[in-house]
Amino acid sequence: NHRRCPSTHANGDPLTNMLRIVLADDHTLVRKGFRLLLESESNVTVVGECGDGHSVLPLVAHHQPDLVIIDVTMPGLNGLEALEHIIHDHPTQKVLMLSMHAADEYVLRALRLGARGYLLKDAADVELVQAVQTVASGGIYLSPAVAGHLVEDYRRLSSDRKPAPSGARVA
């Protein structure tokens, strides 16, 4: 299962570790902008792009990319439904979700379905590159705002469920 395909620069130098990405977002300008940002990195190439969840499935099957970047909200098959199909058919596929939604319900569902990252669309361009490199290398990436919300909710739920041990002093 060869997932990285050798490529070359215009000068003929081989790039054997090109990061191959499939990108799915229903907004053409957003998708093209992400593509330009991603391909400005010397080790990244977008091997396929589309504007809906139905179209991303055959692209993933055909290209077997290192990373799939999917918008959560798309017409027809939304990004979360597409994620579910992708992970079912390709259990080791790395997926980074893009969204304008920071609500826990979207983030937690994406993570439960197998996403390796969740990036808010208002992120800086350097954050996109960091998220892509982190997820592609096997890590987990959450936008700082998303991670903050999850930690706050976790702390609130934990303190609601567990009283402080007797004799413990709470500041």
Architecture overview:
The structure is a single chain. By secondary structure, the chain is α/β, with parallel strands linked by helices. Helices cover 43% and strands 19% of the residues. The protein has six helices and eight strands. Helix 3 (79-89) links the parallel strand 5 and strand 6. Helix 2 packs parallel to helix 3 and helix 3 (79-89) packs parallel to helix 4 (104-113). The relative contact order is 0.12.
Question: Helices and strands in order, then pairings?
Answer:
Blueprint: E1 7-8, E2 14-15, E3 19-24, H1 28-39, E4 44-50, H2 53-63, E5 67-71, H3 79-89, E6 95-99, H4 104-113, E7 117-120, H5 125-136, E8 141-142, H6 144-161
Parallel strand pairs: 3-4, 3-5, 5-6, 6-7, 7-8
Antiparallel strand pairs: 1-2
Give the low-confidence spans: 1-14
Strand content: 15-25%
| N-C termini distance | 55 Å
Report the count of strand segments. Answer: 8
Radius of gyration from CA coordinates:
18 Å
Main sheet properties: 6 strands, parallel
* Strand order in the largest sheet: 4-3-5-6-7-8
Enumerate how many helices there are, as a single number.
6
Give the CA-based shape.
globular
Give the SSE string: EEEHEHEHEHEHEH
Mean pLDDT: 87
Percent of residues in helices comes to 40-55%
